[in-house]
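Hi all, posting the design record for the shared folder.

TITLE: backbone redesign
STEP: 1 of 1
STRUCTURE INPUT:
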């Protein structure tokens, strides 16, 4: 459902993402892990068509993002780490704006808009200006709008910022249920390793633009003696990578 082939991004002399090959099947909850500056967000921006790759390709739902970006984006939803919302719109006005972008029929919009606002507990502030929303409320509106067009693939960049424990639990359960019962494919970048260990079907660990390891949590742990937690493995891998680069 998500496939990258030798996906590469350079900024001048700097290699932000080395040739990256991923093949993530439908219905998979994939967590992308790495320190700050590892290349996670750059990868996500190439997947969503916000950055043009220096080399290689991305296909989502079988569609090349560079060759047919509109068709590719129809099948995906995107929740960035810092969602850009229009402060002078209300929550409901923003939802209608998103519906217009995706050319969602009016009857479908009417049936799903309120359901999503209530599901993410922002129905009661739907007529308030977004400029008055807290960061957590903005994040929840971003999630609600992401699912308005019923995407088959959702790409999420560090979703937990600003969410309280109750809403973190809801979002985890919501996404996991969608993958299990509806075949949703989730590509999530996160620093919260305990959550990744709990919910991910597959994990990829990246540092300095290079994919270090990929597989299920059990498969990654099997590669290490006395692995401990995923956090222990992550810290060992990324610190070793730093030491090798420093030599």
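Okay, here is what came back for every position:
SEQUENCE:
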């Amino acid at each position: 459902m998500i496939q990258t082939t030798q996906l590469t991004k350079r900024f001048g002399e700097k290699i932000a993402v080395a040739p990256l090959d991923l093949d993530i099947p439908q219905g998979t909850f994939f967590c992308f892990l790495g320190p700050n500056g590892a290349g996670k967000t750059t990868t996500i921006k190439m997947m969503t068509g916000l950055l043009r790759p220096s080399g290689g390709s991305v296909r989502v739902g079988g569609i090349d993002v560079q060759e047919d970006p509109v068709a590719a984006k129809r099948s995906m939803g995107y929740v960035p780490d810092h969602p850009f919302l229009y402060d002078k719109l209300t929550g409901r006005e923003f939802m209608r704006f998103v519906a217009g972008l995706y050319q969602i029929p009016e009857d479908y919009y009417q049936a799903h808009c309120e359901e999503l606002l209530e599901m993410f507990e922002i129905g009661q502030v739907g007529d308030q200006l977004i400029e008055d929303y807290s960061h957590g409320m903005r994040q929840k509106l971003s999630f609600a709008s992401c699912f308005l067009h019923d995407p088959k693939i959702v790409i999420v960049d560090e979703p937990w910022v600003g969410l309280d424990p109750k809403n973190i639990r809801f979002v985890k359960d919501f996404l996991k249920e969608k993958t299990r019962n509806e075949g949703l494919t989730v590509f999530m970048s996160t620093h919260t390793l305990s959550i990744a260990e709990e919910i991910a079907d597959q994990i990829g660990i990246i540092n300095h633009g290079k994919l270090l390891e990929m597989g299920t949590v059990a498969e990654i742990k099997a590669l290490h003696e006395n692995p401990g937690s995923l956090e222990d493995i992550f810290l060992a891998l990324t610190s070793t990578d730093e030491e090798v680069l420093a030599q």
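COMMENT: Residues 165-182 form the longest helix (18 residues).
Let me know if anyone wants the other runs.
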